[in-house]
Design goal:
It is a single chain. The protein is mostly helical. It has helices at 2-63, 66-74, 82-87, 89-97, 99-107, 109-144, 146-154, 162-167, 169-177, 179-187, 189-207, 211-221, 224-232, 240-244, 247-255, 257-265, 267-274. Helix 10 (179-187) crosses helix 11 (189-207) and helix 12 (211-221) crosses helix 17. It starts with a helix and ends in a 23-residue tail after the last helix.
């Protein structure tokens, strides 16, 4: 019994040492595993960020290479086709300079292109919404500044004309306060005003059945010479010579095809229906002769 106890006592340091060794290994492994989770999470986040970044970059490339975009969206495997890359050096150069995209393409070209398509649709939707907000804001401004609206719709380049802006401080202040609209105007005033005209017609048609009559009535209220001519003979709007000699009317009709359509169909009836919206005119009042005092009996 004593001999066994002595042998156990001799072995105890060895057993204890081995136990501590394995315990330390277990704790170290657990610490490593615990420590690796945030790193793995961070790495995964970075991978997602890189993927989104590369999607945005590749989407921009495809936007500027429509012919390539059309083909690879139909057949994503072309992105990893050596002959196709040789025939399209811009794509080959792009993939060489963007290893992140190149790796995604080699791994799964179909999945990557599908992800790019989703990204493209999201970007388009966001861009449409941003444009709609700009158009809505500018349309409200023009509704409150009819004289400016009339001039810029006739000549959109005035929106980027420094002298015109100086002469119309309300417009100048608006553009200074609305960077997005200002950038659109500076890039292409004609295109922006074309969109604004379309937006104006759409919005008016949604909630105002008399929109065309109201709009033309307001126009006539600012052009009394044209208003008087149409009161006499509304059919003159069908004469090219008359319209050509009145560029304001010509520009207005070009910007408002629904008004043109109404005038062409029934000029007299259409003009008559605008009278209630013409702020410079009012229905003729029948003069009443003052009552003659009756002599007293």
């Amino acid at each position: 019994m004593t001999t066994n106890r002595v042998q156990f006592n001799k072995k105890w340091p060895v057993i204890y040492g081995l136990g501590m060794f394995f315990l330390a290994g277990t704790l170290a492994g657990a610490q490593t595993a615990t420590g690796s989770n945030p790193q793995n999470s961070t790495a995964a986040t970075q991978d997602r960020d890189i993927t989104r970044k590369e999607l945005a970059n590749f989407d921009e490339f495809l936007d500027s290479h429509r012919e390539i975009a059309e083909q690879v969206r139909k057949d994503p495997s072309l992105l990893d086709n050596k002959q196709f890359l040789k025939d399209h050096p811009d794509l080959q150069r792009y993939l060489w300079n963007h290893p992140g995209v190149r790796e995604e393409v080699k791994e799964n070209p179909t999945a990557f292109v599908h992800a790019e398509n989703r990204y493209d649709r999201q970007e388009d939707a966001a861009a449409r919404e941003a444009t709609r907000e700009k158009l809505s804001s500018f349309d409200q401004f023009l509704d409150k500044h009819r004289e400016i609206a009339e001039q810029v719709r006739r000549n959109p380049s005035l929106l980027d004309n420094q002298q015109f802006l100086k002469d119309h401080p309300a417009l100048q202040t608006y553009l200074q306060d609305h960077k997005g609209v200002r950038e659109e105007v500076q890039e292409n005033p004609n295109a922006f005003m074309h969109q604004e005209n379309r937006y104006d017609r759409t919005e008016a048609g949604r909630g105002d059945p008399d929109a065309a009559h109201r709009q033309f009535g307001e126009f006539l209220g600012h052009h009394m010479d044209i208003s008087r001519d149409l009161d006499k003979d509304a059919s003159v709007v069908k004469k090219d010579e008359y319209v050509h000699n009145h560029p304001e009317l010509q520009a207005y009709l070009n910007a408002h095809p629904e008004v043109r359509q109404g005038l062409m169909a029934d000029p007299q009836g259409f003009v008559k229906s605008t009278q209630q919206f013409n702020t410079q005119t009012s229905p003729a009042k029948t003069a009443t002769a003052p009552a003659t005092a009756q002599p007293k009996p």
